[in-house]
Structures are given as C-alpha cells and as structure tokens.
Amino acid sequence: MTPRRPTTTTTSSSLASHLSARSLPASLPRDVLSFLTHYPSSRPDSKKTANLRFYRNEAPALPRPATCDELQRELRGNWDELERRHDFVQWLFPIREQGVNWEAQPLEVHEVGALRADPEAMARLLESYRIMLAFYGLRLVDPRTGELSLADDVPAPAQASFLQRFANLERHAHNFLRVTRILKCLGEFGLTQHPPSLLLFILHLQSRSSTPLGGPFLTSPSLVRSFDGYWRHCVRDDGEREFVRRKGDEVRAGGEWTAEECREWVRRRAEEREREAHGAREGE
Predict the structure, then answer these.
(1) Domain assignment of residue 8, yes or no
(2) Domain contains 15
(3) DSSP for 101-143?
(4) Are 146 and 198 in contact (CB under 8 A)?
(5) pTM exceeding the 0.70 threshold for the entire prediction
(6) Where is this region: Disordered (predicted)?
(7) Which domain holds residue 249?
(8) Is residue 17 assigned to a domain?
(9) Is residue 72 part of a domain?
C-alpha cells in the first residue's frame, strides 16, 4: 500500500535548496522529502492548538470524544480495536500532514515546542509508542536508547503473542502507513533515538540472525517494500539514516545483523547523542 501524499505541498525551489544542501536524493517519496527537510513550505498557524490540548489532556480527540488518557486506556492491549479503528493514530502521533481523520489537526511547529517542554505530555507520547509497539509484537526496553525486544511473554497462538502480532502487521497493510507516521512523529518531537532503533531491530528480525528465534520474520514482499521505500528514510539525522540504509542493503543481500550488534549500536549512539548535547550546552 502506498502512503498518502501530504496535503501540504513543498515548492520546487525551496525543496531543491534543501536537497542540495544535504545530498538528499530527489527520488525519495515527496512526503518523506518534506519530512526530512522540515516542511519548508508549510505555513504555521499559531491559533491551532488541538494537538497541544489533546496531549495535555485538556481537549478530546475527535470524532469519538476521548481525552488522551482515556483513549490510551481504551486502546491498550485491545488488539481488535487497534486494528479496526482508523481515527486514533492521527491524534496519538500527530505530524505536519493531513491524515484520513479529517477531524484531527495536522501538527503545528509551535505545538512541538510547547509539548516538548511539558514532561507529562511527552510521557503520554511515549506511552502511545509503547501501545503501538505492543500491537506490533515489540517491547520498549530502554526509553533512553530506544532499545527494543520481542514481546515474548505470551506464547502463540494467543492473540497477544508476537507471532500473531507479526502476522497481523503483515496481513493488514494500512499498518505500514501507521509505522511511517509513527517514525515521523517521533522525529518531530525530538525522540530521535527511537526511529533508528525500531528500524534496526526490524532488520535484525528480518535477517538470518533471527533463525534461533524461529525467524526470519516480517519478510512479506509488501512489508519489505514499505521498509525499503519509506520507513528507512524517515530518520532525520543523515548519518543515522545512511547507517540504516546500508544495514538494510546488507540484510537484503543475506547478511547477518544480530540482536547484540543492534543493542550495542543503539547504546553507543545514545552515549554519542548525550555527549553532543552536553557539548552544545557548554558552547551556549
């Protein structure tokens, strides 16, 4: 399934300048290019605050009214509801693009700053990520690094088992669009450890290194096309995105990518980010 193009358009001149500055290939999907270049043609509207108020638990999601806490309680572990409903993901993972729920407001830049400064709101966003990870058969091990593991506490054929969750993900291609949105949302809110960690863990599951677990997993042609054509590009850091791309090519060629290698990379990268942030603060 091909992700929808965003309603926000990017002018040729502004996009071209960003592509040239960062050596981004123009062949990438238009919505991915807009995301990577921070939507250079978007027009901010400071009067729009629906996402800010929702994540502060001050206003409900629409069209089925529920505050953020209420919606998360309703969806957590509710596999059937998570699968069949199409009106919640735009609220839980707002991005600067219009989704299929026309009552959900696209994200505004000023909302990003306000929410990032609100620890309770950011905790809710991380909980939304945990809910969807569980829906896809995964578990967040360490929020600091983004490290993931299989949600293997429930054996198959139970609906909550990771094997059933993987099968559901591969069977219902609209989830591929959801993953793209989740990756973009995490990047927008500065949770930059999570997109590469998620992508690299999926690559581990797809590699022959997952054979002892019963893998490889998540290798359906449609999911692999979404990974290679969309997901692996939704990382704003150029170096991290290139590493994911390169590792993906190696896995597609039959190479190994072990769980330990994945853990080491996400932990080392988290330490590097912390040093970079510390250096930036000292330079202010």
Answers:
(1) no
(2) no
(3) -TTSPPP-HHHHHHHHT-HHHHHHHHHHHHHHHHHTTEEEEET
(4) yes
(5) yes
(6) 1-20
(7) 27-282
(8) no
(9) yes
